[in-house]
UniProtKB/TrEMBL annotation, chain A:
Reactions it catalyzes: N(2)-formyl-N(1)-(5-phospho-beta-D-ribosyl)glycinamide + L-glutamine + ATP + H2O = 2-formamido-N(1)-(5-O-phospho-beta-D-ribosyl)acetamidine + L-glutamate + ADP + phosphate + H(+)
Annotated catalytic residues: 58, 107 (proton acceptor)
Subcellular location: Cytoplasm
GO biological process, one term: 'de novo' IMP biosynthetic process
Organism: Streptomyces toyocaensis
Protein name per Swiss-Prot or TrEMBL: Phosphoribosylformylglycinamidine synthase subunit PurL
Positions that bind Mg(2+) 1: 105, 551
From TrEMBL, chain B:
EC number, as in UniProt: 6.3.5.3, 3.5.1.2
Catalytic activity: L-glutamine + H2O = L-glutamate + NH4(+); N(2)-formyl-N(1)-(5-phospho-beta-D-ribosyl)glycinamide + L-glutamine + ATP + H2O = 2-formamido-N(1)-(5-O-phospho-beta-D-ribosyl)acetamidine + L-glutamate + ADP + phosphate + H(+)
Protein name: Phosphoribosylformylglycinamidine synthase subunit PurQ
Xref: InterPro entries: Class_I_gatase-like, PRibForGlyAmidine_synth_PurQ
Pfam families the record matches: GATase_5
PROSITE patterns recorded: GATASE_TYPE_1 (PS51273)
Protein's organism: Streptomyces toyocaensis
Active site, per annotation: 87 (nucleophile), 196, 198
Amino acid sequence: MSKTPLDTVEHAAATPDVELPWAELGLKKDEYERVVEILGRRPTGAELAMYSVMWSEHCSYKSSKVHLRQFGEKAPESDALLVGIGENAGVVDVGQGYAVTFKVESHNHPSYVEPYQGAATGVGGIVRDIIAMGARPVAVVDPLRFGAADHPDTKRVLPGVVAGIGGYGNCLGLPNIGGEVVFDACYQGNPLVNAGAIGVMRHEDIHLAKASGAGNKVILYGARTGGDGIGGASILASETFDDAKPSKRPAVQVGDPFQEKLLIECTLEAFAEKLVVGIQDLGAAGLSCATSELASNGSGGMRVTLDDVPLRDSTLSPEEILMSESQERMCAVVEPEKVDRFLEICDKWDVIATVIGEVTDGDRLEIYWHGGKIVDVDPRTVAHDGPVYERPYARPSWQDELQADDANKLPRPGTGEELKDQVLKLVGSPNQASKQWITQQYDHFVQGNTVLAQPEDSGMIRIDEASGLGVAIATDGNGRYAKLDPYAGAQLALAEAYRNVATTGAKPLAVSDCLNFGSPEDPAVMWQFAEAVRGLADGCRQLGTPVTGGNVSLYNQTGEAAIHPTPVVAVLGVIDDVARRTPVAFQEDGQLLYLLGDTREEFGGSAWSQVVHDHLGGLPPKVDLERERLLAEILISASRDGMIDSAHDLSDGGLVQAVVESALLGGKGARLVVPDGLDAFTFLFSESAGRAVVAVPRSEEVRFNDMCGARGLPATRVGVVDGDTVEVQGEFALTLAELREAHEGTIPALLG
Amino acid sequence: MTARIGVVTFPGSLDDRDTQRAIRVAGAEPVALWHKDKDLKQVDAVVLCGGFSYGDYLRAGAIARFSPVMDTVIDQARAGMPVLGICNGFQILTEAHLLPGGMLGNDHLHFICRDQKLRVENADTSWTTDYTAGQEIHIPLKNMDGRYVADRRTLDELEAEGRVAFRYLDFNPNGSLNDIAGITNAAGNVVGLMPHPEHAVEPLIGTGRTDGLPFFTSILKKLVNA
């Protein structure tokens, strides 16, 4: 694209009729015309590169913006929120002067094209977002979705993704404490690789992405800029895969976790010495994004000399340098008198750092190359004034039929023997089976603060050694529920993550989300998206947990077939003393099992309907967020006051799945009695929301019952921790050995 | 008095702060050492901690072995200073020829992180006197390149001289020869192992066991009583 003569601003003004490849760069005709209108002339090649990448769906949220506004408009009052939507990541006050930043992002498309590097750089990107806020990263989580477990391509994608997450995260020294792995044919060709990270800092250490103070220097530091990932953001993330198009392989970036580890340490050292005015990581859209966002969020303009950018490949054109998504780079704004010290710290860590420009007192972003001015724009028009689409949306014609196909009418097991067979089938099905084969490829011990990690209900990290203050995080999302009813599905994802945090004893505080959907150009998909956002925003308002940020991934679609709408919700919680955390595993024979909440005949979208009948239809479980809040309060109180020794939330697979998991983890069985008013099948397999099963020491039974009674939470005694079988009285018994074989053998057999 | 125990940070070290904490929990004083600095700051012993020093590029531990700090560590270790190498530190010790043999990629080709059962085979080294020989312990293990290998003569020598300090029990997580998890030099001052005792020093954290603490109390007693 580089031309002779150099396509400067002057040259562009003088040659209005030159045709630029705006369509190849992913811009629509009206978008290109808008660029021309903003500039009052045709853009230079470099300007076109910047606008095209910043106005892509991935960077501009042009299709989703009008809906996402609800997260702000409906945000509940929360004293905990220190930094909200719009920054690199949200920041939450967790007390004792600590602030926690967390966020979930997607790296879906790259991970399908190149599973290892796609997933690895997903971790790298989210971690840089966390550092850019001023925090030390303390943990990562990875919600993943793949095609059918026995599909040959899953065996290509999954091991690569898992090795990539492990290879990068393990090398950064970040414990991987949570996430999910879900298989469904709908994700065939469109795996979802979401990555979340948590960081901790003191309140006074919060940093923001803005370039202020004329004369301050702009320093690019980290890896050299290369030809990887050029146009990745605009081309790769914004268009649906189509067999007819040429391979897009070169657009995936390549990660170097060692470089990122150095970047973390040197950035934190610079923060500690208060050397940084503003900071931005280089992720999607690389320098285009970093310079335009820093400049547009600050008070002045910015002048950058692109010739000073350290290159891995000296033949790169200025447009390519601006678009490159080479990993492990950051951009800092530093006062002139502190530049030397900043460079010294970078040198200590063997990190290349270069002054590439400075903040000006104007309001333009100007970029020079070989002495010529190749960019002269109002940075806001690049970073914030991208197109906004009111995409048409409509409830799909098939929705009624889907909901009418009632899962509650499916044939049910009639005998104890049939129940037993279906329990074994359920706990051994790929979605319900143990994911240890995957999670043991992640380091969950590093940093020495991991209190809970998968397969616990939430991951928990100690953040203060003296007081025991800790944070918990859970991510959840059920695409099957959301397909049946996207509004309820989003709320069920929120409810489950909220419940999972509370089950471990932590108080839910705030939400991040990763919204994975098909093509926004399909009105049915857009309706799913609109409904899910509305549901999540309403739910967050009701639960008092604000959305602090997140990510939207659209175009997860091959041809006409979109993925199930998959809003993945992360809930962050705080616990005053991690010593009071509640684990999933049964602790002691003789403890009493209580089922909290109401159990109804709810099988729409259930694991049972999928595993036994390969069915998806009907309505998802009913949402009752007030009940979720009450349940959470009870679980937190019971944990704090030592009334329960183990707890497990009930979600996919129902009560039997939860009990089997607690039994296998604790190496202790359970005897269950079907309570009055319920049949054995509904008792075991229903997926009614707002429930948990807890183990209560006998000495605490009265106190625990009194608390539930006084607060109006149904608590039903359903059994006792005992022996080495899981027995449902009068129906069947399964030994822990049989259950273990079914539960733990599946994934290694498929993937090992 | 207490003992000063150095922890080296290489670029890519990950468990340096954890190891410092473990030393503190045991009651000794952790001292941060920097890879570019030959000065060991008057420490009584050194721990080379886990991580991916220099990105594990070339070969795990191969570059770290040539860093300035290692010149001093190698000299001092030969003169009798206690040195413990954990995971990447073990790999560095073999690269530095302070311990024999070397580490290859895990036989199953995956990173593995698990709570690993071990048997203490030698409770007479500087780092293991608070264990008893034959004691069975659980220590977290996490590595990509943990398969201990050596030629037959070296293995025979290690076995004959009781220099296999720790052995994997029930499950060999990486294909190590003779189920070797850790070894010592003949003098007993240099010990290396793949599992991470620094991750098992506090109840509640990690696996919830404190089976790794005796490493740090052993060395503290030895140094204080010296």
